[in-house]
Queue: 3 jobs
Job 1
Amino acid sequence: MEIRLKSARRYVEEIPTRLRVVGVWGGELTEGGQRLATREQITQMMEELKFRGDFGETLLLPVSASGGNEPEFVMLFGLGAKKRGVSLETVRKAGAKLVAAITKLGFKEAVTETFLAEKFGKKEASYALAEGAILGAYEFKKYKSDPEVKRLRLWLARSSGPAVDRAEIVAEAVNYARDLVNEPPNVLTPAELAERARELGRETGLQVMVWDERQIQQEGMGAFYGVAQGSANPPRFIQITYKPRGKPSRVLAYVGKGLTFDTGGYSLKPSESMTTMKSDMAGAAAVMGAMRAIARIGPNAEVRAYIAAAENMVSGSAYRVSDVLKSLSGKTIEVMNTDAEGRLTLADALTYADREGAEAIVELSTLTGACVVALGQGIAGLFATDDRLGKEVQEAALRAGEQVWPLPLEEDYRELLKSTTADLKNVSGARHGGAIMAGLFLSEFTEKPLVHLDIAGPAYTTNPHSLGPAGGTGFGVRTLVEMVAPGIAEE
């Protein structure tokens, strides 16, 4: 769907469109509805039709036209009950549901009040509503032979222009990440992901550098290359840098897992588990999406992104169980499971980010099924080697509307990663604590403050969700942007 948002300082009734949308909260018309000349007529029809305004419930009413031959309509949009737990996420989800409801009825233009602005403030409500509308309008129809493209122009009455502008930047970056995740793996190879990064650099002015397989080997990234060596599609190491105009307030590194397809290697996945493995680069997609938004917002922090892009395939040259790989850090790793490949690629990326001078590192990866078992498909696990950085990321995620939950890096478990053959094993061999063990393994490869976000649950969904369709969700983009560019621009 192609959606255009138009911010307006005017009230709903002052913008000439055939469809006006007002909220119903706690069974009553919100502020926008109270100003309508037809409010008494609307209230009476609500009572007659027993419309309660449950969240997402809609009621389309014809009202007296103000002029001309075309009838006018008011859509009542339910915002639920006035109860504890109502938050800006309610407004964000309302934006997504509203877009679907309007386009289903065939309208190509509408005006909506900015829901619950009286409760949360105009800027905050404008941002959440606009972001939800753009995320909810997302579709991936690139490979459909005859896709139907719906178009909608949506006016946000009494809204904050700067807040809507920022929401558009961030939401479009999320959709950019979704596009990357939804690409089929025969298209989005490591080389193609690197080319998309170059295109991003040309579009935004970001600095982009890409290493091919020879450079990766020459630099000593043995853990990364060990995973990649079994594929006919060679690996790429992608570096993207944003620098502010003045002296940066801080230097952060964002590292994203970039497995463009994961078979599990010789520790082969079952076929049903492979169907979503094009999404194993969702961490890389989130990092690239965040860099896209950061370049446009222009914060004062310097941000460096690193992606070790590879495929984990089965062939005569693929790495095996019991192989020993030498990482960029110099530590050797005994491979106990070739399906624990992401942490091997990330090990070298983390070491490189550390050596390049990052003050702190935030890493995102679809790393373990154990984290999905622990937290479900809607929540990412947060593992921090530094409490202060962990709290900063958690608070950024809360403001951004993405759910993360802190889990411990239990030091006593570290002994389970020791190998009798090499310095470390890539898995412990124990059935318990898999997500924690993965986080502990990653922490071996940097001395800098590190937050590892295991996004295996929320990065990809096989069913439609409250902010979009099935497929890549773009999870993590909003949190990463919020970390370095917090808040909504002042009017």
Note: The radius of gyration is 24 Å.
Job 2
Amino acid sequence: MKLKLYTLLLTLSILNCTAQDTTLYVGTYTGGDSEGIYKLTFNTETGALTNKELVAKAENPSYLSYSPDKKHIYAVVEHEKGMVSSFKITDNKHLTLLSKVSTHGAHPCHVAINKSGNKAIVSNYTGGNASIHTIANDGTLTEAFQVLEHNVDSIVSHVHSAEFYKNQLYVSDLGKNAVYNYQLENDKFKLIDSSIVDLANHAGPRHFALTNNGKFIYIINEYSSSITVGQKTEKGFTKIDEDSTLEADYNGKNSCADIHLSKDERFLYASNRGENTIAVFKRETNSGTINKIQTISVHGNWPRNFTLDPTGQFLLVANRWSHNISVFSVNASTGLLKFMHDTKISEPVCLLF
């Protein structure tokens, strides 16, 4: 009887430990020691990162995105001859290459999938355009059915990110200093607005976060180290707030990188490359305005992408030049961060739970 009880308790303990573990995929640059896409085990109770393993050899997979059902992963190939790849996730969480197609532009740096999982858009930084692809039922990518060209005048385009929202498509162009809005019409995306909200001169919009209801947009500006807040109107967005991501006494060079809302949308997080910090903002959920409440060191150099874990209790930062991933705990009540520990990995630039 005691043996059966012990066996039952041991089984429950193992199941509980398994339930606390989730997989983190890491996109990297492969000019040094890295060979492609890695996976680590993340414990959502302790914040521990373990079991680093190469799961797909790939060239500069600097941005990764899931399919909605999390059965496939899409990765850019950041190179002069831009490509985007699709992978099937196997039973042991490794990745099997399914397809690789041209992005029709150099140095793709971002890929996003629509909610239905049947379209992908890839942002080409040097190419100054974005390619849109159909995704088949098996996860394979077709050749681009549309390319959004932004290099149409003397101002050099640098498309940096894009997101689908219902039948809308928003595209952030750092070079043009604008966020574009396209709308799906007759299976193609039609340009509705080439600048949805006023931005300061040479702000450099890089990434953005939309609220779930689409009412507010938060744009992180690489050059001006600021966040522009827009509120949805009938004719696009109107600017309602703008805040610096830097401490008032910081005088060095800085380039903002990534931005994310907490799951409950009460807090906003932004990464600073140069100051090497995460800026934390409290968000007024009704008005949409933000107020900075914390600046915390990333315990590394040149933070690129960062992410919140599935529980919302941890925030992880990919520090490219210090070759580490830093783990922070998140206070659910205040949104404030506390550094816990870090894990070494060569040139991490994208984190995907």
Note: The chain is about 5% helix and 55% strand.
Job 3
Amino acid sequence: MSKRNASMLGDAYKSTKQPRHWSLGLVGSMKDPELIVKQSDRVVAIRDKYPKAKVHYLVLPQDDINSIYGLNKNHISLLEEFGDFYEELKENHDGATLRAGFHAVPSLQRLHMHVISSDMVSPCLKTKVHWNSFTTKFFIPYQDVLSELKESGSIQKISTELHKSLMSTDLQCNQCSFKPKNMPQLKEHLFTHVK
């Protein structure tokens, strides 16, 4: 076979090869030295590539755990290390109010805890679903997940009905009682809270 034919065959193979699904993107991101802010043998903290606030990190396990629903009592010390990372990230952002938590139905595979500032000012915050995933009970606080894991040995899934209800919750500012008509109005309003 000529080099040209071999090259064409290689190109044909590349074009038919399926790309990795976007939901697996965190696995690559957690190995990217440009994104890593801290890591240990068991845990890595990275900058979110599409931050939904001025400060937005993800804390992930080095082990392949799909989501909070893959956790059991053997993972308590791992989750406590997530908390240690959260505390250290808070120290690095004195003056910012940071929250840590998990999405009840994560869109990305690989367990990940969000550490996010309450300002919610970001060009990547675009939709009502983005907003509601961080400002309703869909965002399960870190301490609640750790407590449930210690008490029950697992995390209870939310119902499909509750998921839909939380995603369709009316918009409301997370810092005051303002109820905007749409996302552009909310995003403009959020700047009034920026110091």
Note: Helices lie at 3-16, 25-29, 76-91, 128-135, 142-152, 160-167, 183-190.
